[in-house]
Amino acid sequence: MKHFDIAVLGAGSGLIIMEGALAAGKSVAVIEKGAFGGTCLNRGCIPSKMLVYPADLIRDAERGERVGISFDKPSIDWAKVSRRMWRQIDVTQDLDRDISKMKGVTVFRGEGSFVDKNTLNITMNEGGTENITADKIIIATGSKSRIPDMEGLNDVGYLTSESFFGDQFPKKPYDSLLIIGGGFTALEFAHVFSAFGTKVTVAVRSETILRGLDEEIPPFVRKQLEDVGVTFLYEAVPQRIRVEGEQKIMTFRDRQTGEEYEAGAQEVLLAPGIVPNTSSLNLGAVGVNTDKNGYVITDEKLRTNVAGIYAIGDVNGKFPLRHKANYEAEILNNILFGDDTRVASYEAVPSAVFTHPQVGSVGMSEKEARAQYGDKVRVNRYHYSDVIAGISMGYSKNRPDDGFAKVITLDDKRILGVHVVGPQAGTIVQPWAYLMNAGGPGQADKPGTWLPVEHGMTIHPTFSELTAWPLIYPLD
Questions:
Q1: What pTM does this model have?
Q2: Are 238 and 149 in contact (CB under 8 A)?
Q3: Contact criterion met (CB below 8 Å) for 209 and 221
Q4: Is there a single domain that holds both residue 265 and residue 159?
Q5: Could you tell me the residue range of the domain that residue 364 belongs to?
Q6: pLDDT tens digits for 307-343?
Q7: Do the domain assignments include residue 36?
Q8: Domain for residue 391, yes or no?
Q9: What is the CATH number of the domain that holds 377?
Q10: How many domains is the chain partitioned into structurally?
């Protein structure tokens, strides 16, 4: 039985742990049954942005007349858009090959599960099993789309972000698309396909989209998407689905009235949320604690309740964002191979929603801030039309798409939250995330350093990475 210093379950952000272990002279096992790079590289933030940017261009062109520039209706070369996306996904195949050649790394192409706290049983993709042992094991298995239990669903068929960026990728944009869910993924797809000419309907179980963001953001985004043709169904609980001609017809129940109604489309995309990839890990064999939804419970040092077992990324249920997972991996590297001084903090986790318009957010919503601090909270807003950069883009006070920045602070000037909706919102929010990380351990006596960048999170993928990554992940 082979023994390793470190075993990493999952080849997404877990690869950062692998790199840290190799730098420390440790032997590493990487267990991965699917494509290297994880959700982000293969079926998430990176391939989706290859579709989002063309969609952004279309929406920008539609606004050109405001500043005196008119365009003909865009001609979409879907084949070229698709080729560029697949080329980017294919880069991860090189990652797989390169890692397999690294000295000190052994790659196991299969699915691992616990036998005991130091032993993993790996069901190999090509057949058979293999057992290995490791001093420390890191769970970085990520998450997958949650599939609702619905009559007729398996018979009719459906899309998820996994299958869309796989064997169900369309040869052309859909004529119509029904999206189930109101979160980041759902609204990103709504933006992309509505821009490409698809008739999009978004069905949400709750009373709002983008739950968890500041309460002023969801209605603004909804209005802008409705203005470009997206239809929203709220309080819509899926009941069953059937095929009728070339349409997939879904029956919904209204949560408030109990009445049933139908909505149909050429295709259905399920994006109602995610579940952790923990069901096959056999965590019960070692007593690793999970919450009611199956997420691995970790502390500020990414430790589980079992000594020597850690968890990072989506699988621990704390903000399903790639930059959050990378942040946790860097902290864990410090804990395992450094001076063990850093701990994870989730008070300033920045995020972006690449929809129409873009949303950037970090910290508390106004509602959360007032609940905790009451009258000490100060809220200040500026609209895009309040600055010349926004005016030059055609934003004005009398237009409903005049986006805004909302800064929430305390009397003592402490930053509680910043929320932006409009062009480049994610990049605009990023400096505030750094500021919220300033003044932490070891920083007070070092003004002017880039420690807030190192100790914070940089939204992925945004142009903010252009200045952060040369420091965090230098190429030389």
A1: 0.95
A2: no
A3: yes
A4: yes
A5: 357-472
A6: 999 999 999 999 999 999 999 999 999 999 998 888 9
A7: yes
A8: yes
A9: 3.30.390.30
A10: 3
